[in-house]
Design brief:
The protein is an alpha+beta fold and 429 residues long. The protein is built from 15 helices and 12 strands. Strand 1 and strand 2 form a beta hairpin. The longest helix is centred in the last third of the chain and has 24 residues.
C-alpha cells in the first residue's frame, strides 16, 4: 500500500529521507529570529492578543462539554460577554507580564481581553528596533472590479454598517471575483482599528456584530473550516503575513471600512515555510484517511483546499507572492506531470462539488444552522464530527492514480522546501 512508505513520527507522516526536516525547521526558526528575550516577549504578547481577539470576534469559546451553556447560548445569552478562553499561564518577560494580570486568571472574559488591549496599546504600536520591517500599501478599489460578487456582501454590509469606522472588512477569493461554486466558502480579512476598543461598550458591539457574521458563514457553507482572518491595528505595525499574505487584497471587495491598507511587514519569511510544512502534513493525513474510506465530506473539503494551497505556498517560499488562482495556473512550472494529476482532480472536484455524495443533506444542514442556537465553532464541530465517512467509490473521479498523485505532489513540495532551507544555510537537512 502506498501509505505504508510513510512513517508516523510525532504527528507527522514522513519518508525516510525527510526525518531530518522537522529539527531543521525548528533550527531555522531559531536562526531566523535572533532577537533578544525582550523582543521575543514583545512578539509573544502581540501573538497572544491576536489569538484571543480572533477567538472572541469569531465566537470561538474554550468549550466545556459539561457546561451546556457553552454549546447552546444564543437564546439564553445573546450578548458576546458570554465568552471565555484558556488563560495565559506564565508571563515570560516585561510585556507579557503587563497583560498577565488581565488574561492570567482561570478564564479570560471579554472584559479581561478589552483591558489587556488597552494596556498593550501603550507599547504594541512601536515594535522593537531590532525587528526589520518594510512598509506596504494596498489600494482596494471602491467600485468592485467584479460586479458578480456573492450576495453575502450585502448581508455583511447590513450587519456591519454600524461599526464601519471601527473595522475594515475585505472579502476575497472566489466569492469576491464572482467565479464561486457550491464548493466555495467565505474568505475575508478583518482589520480591527484602535477605535474598535476605544471603550468597552464599543468593543462589545464590534465583537457582537463580527460574531454574527461569522455564524452567517456557517449557514452559507456548513463545511466552513475557519472564521474571520483577524488583524488588529497593532498587528499592522509589525505584521507577520505568513498566515494570510496581503496579496489576497489584489482582487478583494470592500465590505466596510477603508480603501487603503498600510502595514509594516516583517522581512523574515520562515513562517511561510512552517505553514507549508503543516499544510503538507494535513494533505497527507487526509489523503491517507480518504484511501482507507475514513474521510467524511468535511475532511474531503479540507483535503481539496489543502491541495489548492500548495502551489501558492511553494511560489511564496521562493519569494513570489502569487495568489492561489495564478499559482495554480502556473503550477506546471514547479511540479511534474504526475503531481499535476492531483491538482487537476482537486480543480474538477471543486467545479462539480454539488454532485458529491451527501451534498443535498449538507444543504439541509445549512438551513438547520439558521435556527440552531449555537456559536460558529460549535456548528463547525457538528459538521466535522457528525458527517458519515465516504467510501472511495463515493468520491467523484477518485482513482488509484489520483491517490498516488496526491502523495507525489506532497513529496515534491517537501523536496522544494528542503532546497529553500538549504539555501538559507540550515545544516543537517
Amino acid at each position: 500500500m502506498l501509505i505504508s512508505q510513510y512513517k508516523a513520527d510525532g504527528g507527522n507522516l514522513l519518508l525516510a529521507q525527510e526525518e531530518s526536516l522537522v529539527p531543521a525547521l525548528q533550527q531555522e526558526s531559531r536562526q531566523s529570529q535572533p532577537y533578544s528575550p525582550e523582543t521575543n516577549d514583545w512578539l509573544l504578547c502581540q501573538r497572544l492578543l491576536n489569538q484571543f481577539s480572533s477567538m472572541a470576534l469569531n465566537g470561538d469559546l474554550h468549550l466545556s462539554k459539561r457546561c451546556p451553556t457553552d454549546w447552546i447560548y444564543r437564546f439564553f445569552y445573546p450578548e458576546p460577554t458570554f465568552w471565555h478562553a484558556p488563560s495565559l499561564s506564565v508571563p515570560t518577560g516585561p510585556y507579557t507580564r503587563r497583560i498577565h494580570k488581565y488574561i492570567g486568571g482561570k478564564k479570560v472574559s471579554l472584559h479581561n481581553l478589552y483591558a489587556a488591549l488597552k494596556e498593550a496599546e501603550q507599547f504594541l504600536f512601536e515594535p522593537p528596533d531590532e525587528i526589520l520591517t518594510e512598509t506596504r500599501r494596498c489600494i482596494i478599489q471602491e467600485s468592485p472590479r467584479h460586479p458578480a460578487f456573492h450576495p453575502v456582501v450585502y448581508d455583511m454590509r447590513r450587519i456591519l454598517s454600524h461599526i464601519g469606522d471601527d473595522v475594515s472588512v475585505y472579502l476575497h477569493g472566489s466569492m469576491a471575483t464572482g467565479d464561486y461554486t457550491p464548493f466555495s466558502d467565505v474568505d475575508d480579512l478583518v482589520i480591527v482599528h484602535q477605535t474598535g476598543w476605544s471603550s468597552y461598550a464599543r468593543f462589545r458591539e464590534v465583537v457582537r456584530r463580527l460574531e454574527t457574521v461569522a455564524t452567517l458563514f456557517q449557514r452559507i457553507d456548513p463545511l466552513q473550516h475557519h472564521g474571520h482572518w483577524i488583524y488588529l491595528d497593532s498587528d499592522m505595525a509589525c505584521l507577520d503575513q505568513s498566515s494570510l499574505p496581503l496579496v489576497v487584497l489584489n482582487d478583494s471587495v470592500i465590505v466596510v471600512g477603508r480603501p487603503e491598507v498600510t502595514a509594516n511587514l516583517r522581512l523574515e519569511d520562515w513562517g511561510l515555510r512552517r505553514i507549508l510544512w503543516d499544510n503538507i502534513q494535513d494533505v497527507r493525513h487526509n489523503a491517507s484517511a480518504m484511501a482507507r474510506g475514513k474521510l467524511n465530506l468535511y475532511g474531503l473539503k479540507n483535503l481539496v483546499s489543502g491541495i489548492s494551497l500548495l502551489p501558492p505556498l511553494i511560489f511564496q517560499i521562493n519569494g513570489k507572492m502569487l495568489d492561489k488562482k495564478t499559482a495554480i495556473l502556473r503550477s506546471s512550472n514547479i511540479f511534474s506531470d504526475k503531481a499535476l494529476v492531483a491538482l487537476q482532480w482537486s480543480t474538477k472536484l471543486r467545479e462539480t462539488w454539488a454532485s458529491c455524495h451527501g451534498y443535498m443533506g449538507l444543504r439541509m444542514m445549512g438551513y438547520l444552522n439558521c435556527i440552531l442556537p449555537f456559536r460558529r465553532n460549535t456548528l463547525e464541530a457538528i459538521a466535522r464530527r457528525c458527517l458519515p465517512s465516504l467510501r472511495t467509490s463515493q468520491i467523484p473521479f477518485l482513482t488509484d492514480e489520483v491517490v498516488k498523485a496526491i502523495f507525489q505532489l506532497s513529496n515534491e513540495c517537501v523536496n522544494q522546501l528542503r532546497e529553500v532551507i538549504v539555501v538559507n544555510g540550515v545544516k543537517g537537512v
